[in-house]
Amino acid sequence: MLRKWMLVLCFCLGIFGCGCSETTSDESSTASSEATTATTQSTDEKTTRDLFAMDTYITLTAYGNNAEAGISAAEACIQDLDARLSTGNTESEIAKLNATGSGTLSEDTSAILQEAITLYQDTDGAFNPLMYPIMQAWGFPTHEYRVPEDVSVIGFDGTALAEYYNPKLATIKQQYQTLATRSVEILFGQIELKRSQIHEIVPFELASGESIQKIR
Question: How far apart are CA 108 and CA 86, in angstroms?
Answer without folding.
Answer: 14
